[in-house]
Amino acid sequence: MLPSVAPAPIPTPALESRSLVQTFAALPHLVAAPLPIIPPQQPAAEAPKRTVAEPAAETPAPPAANVGGGFSLARQLGLGVSRVVIDPGHGGHDPGAKGSGITEAAVVLDIAVRLESLLLKEGVEVTLTRRGDDYVPLEDRTAIANKAQADLFLSIHANASRNSQARGAESYFLNFATSPDAEAVAAVENAASGRTMNDLAGILKKITLNTKISESHDFAAQVQESMVQRLRATHRSFKDLGVKQAPFVVLIEATMPSSLVEVSFITHREEGRLLRSASYRQRIAQALLEGIRHYQASLKSAGNATGSGSRAPAGRARGRVP
C-alpha cells in the first residue's frame, strides 16, 4: 500500500489577500483615467435680427359728427362728394328781385359761372341748371340734379326786402319754416312754382319723410359760415342772418343734400352796389367754394360739421333736425 501523500497546497495569489483598494492601487495600469467632465453644450446664441420698422397702416379719418351731434346714415356709410349741381335762381321772364340797376337773375348767374370755374379747378364735376337768361321751372331744376346723379345741390339767390336796411346773408335747408322771415322768403321764392293745392298732401309727405335733413343742414351751415368769414373780411358791416329752414319747392325733389343761399340783399344800398362789382361776386363764389370744400372734408375727417371744429355757425336753425 502506497503511503498517503498530502496534497500540495495550491498557492494563493497575492491578490486574494489584498483588499480591492490595494489591488487596484497595485495595478495602476488597469485603472482608467477619469473622464473629463464636459459641460452640456449651450445652444449658440442667435445673432440679433435686424428689424425694419413697418410703416403704420393708414386708416381713413372718421367723419365729423353732424351739427345735431350724431352721425347720419350718409356718414355711417362713408359717402363723399364728387359731383355738384349749381342752380342760378330765376331767369327768363322771372328776373327775380330788382335793385341798384341790376336783377337777381343776372347777378346769381354770374356768381354760378364763377363758382363752376373754381370747382372745376378742384376736380369736381359741375352741372348748371341754366347758362343763359332762360326760365327753368323750379321742379325741373331739381330734376336736372337728380338726372346728373349729383352729390350736392346748391341754389343761389340774392335777397330783397321792403326794409331798405335789411342786409346780410342767410342759408336754408328743406324743412318746415320756423320763423315769419323764413316763411316770407319761401313765399317769394316759391311764387313761380307750378304746383296746385292738390299737391299739398304730397308735398307735406315728402318734407316729412325727407331723409337728407341732417346733411342738408350741415351743408347749409358750412356755406353760411364760409360766406360770413369771407365777406366780413372786406365788408365789416356784413350781417350773419344764420341757417334757417323753409319749404322751398326747388329743394323738395332733391335726392341729395341741398341748400338755398341768399348771398346778399339786392335792395340794400351798399350791398346792391357791391353786387354790381365783379370782385365782390368773385368773393361770393370763393366763399361758396369754401363752403362746399369744408362740407366735403367734414364727411371724411374728425371734428364737428362746422368746418373749424371749434364752434357752430351763428344763427343755427332752431327746428328739430334728425
Task: Give a written overview of the molecule.
This protein has helices at 20-26, 73-76, 104-121, 138-147, 180-189, 200-208, 213-232, 249-252, 269-275, 278-298, and strands at residues 83-88, 98-99, 102-103, 125-128, 152-159, 169-174, 240-246, 258-265. The protein has a single domain, classed as 3-Layer(aba) Sandwich (Aminopeptidase). The strands form two sheets. It has a six-stranded mixed sheet, sandwiched between helices. A two-stranded antiparallel ribbon has the order 2-3. Helices cover 34% and strands 13% of the residues. The protein starts with 19 loop residues before the first helix and ends in a 24-residue tail after the last helix. The longest helix has 21 residues, at 278-298. Residues 13-17 and 306-322 have low confidence and may be disordered. The chain is of the alpha/beta class. It contains ten helices and eight strands.
Question: What's the oligomerization state?
Answer: single chain
Kindly state the mean pLDDT as a whole number? Answer: 80
Strand order of the largest sheet: 4-1-5-8-6-7
Beta fraction = 5-15%
Order of helices and strands: HHEEEHEHEEHHHEHEHH
Could you give the count of β-strands? 8
Low-confidence stretches: 13-17, 306-322
In CATH terms, what is the fold-level topology?
Aminopeptidase
> How many helices in DSSP terms?
10
Bulk shape: globular
CATH superfamily: Zn-dependent exopeptidases
Distance between termini?
A: 146 Å
Helix and strand composition category: alpha/beta
What is the number of domains?
A: 1
- By CATH, the architecture is named 3-Layer(aba) Sandwich
